[in-house]
Design goal:
Mean pLDDT: 76
Largest sheet: none
Shape: globular
Order of helices and strands: HHHHH
Radius of gyration: 15 Å
Number of strands: 0
Oligomer: single chain
Length: about 110
């Protein structure tokens, strides 16, 4: 008898294998903004705004690789879709800075 995977595990597997921040499809920006307004939380629209932090945190928790480096790579892939590519050296400097900033942002957010 073949064992069936639970639908939630199939969904999680699908999203963790995708590029960028896939949970924005399940939890849209508008919903997070609505919750932030209800809570009276104001923020500046920076790289690590609360919306990106929530999406990346969900991805990081559900991904088998819970590393900060992987979470930052997802953010870069997400942001890279809208921006032109940097040189490899610029990317490595950016990744190091983003990892450090991401850790600080996670600590402040949660």
């Amino acid at each position: 008898m073949l064992s069936q995977k639970h639908p939630s595990s199939v969904l999680i597997q699908k999203f963790t294998k995708s590029i960028g921040l896939p949970f924005q499809k399940l939890l849209p920006r508008t919903k997070i903004e609505e919750i932030l307004r209800e809570l009276g939380i104001k923020y500046r629209n920076r790289i690590y705004n609360p919306i990106v932090i929530v999406w990346s945190f969900i991805s990081q928790v559900l991904d088998p690789d819970h590393s900060c480096k992987n979470a930052v790579s997802r953010i870069i892939a997400h942001k890279g879709r809208r921006r032109h590519r940097n040189s490899i050296r610029e990317q490595s400097v950016l990744i190091a800075k983003l990892e450090k900033d991401y850790q600080k942002s996670c600590l402040k957010t949660f």
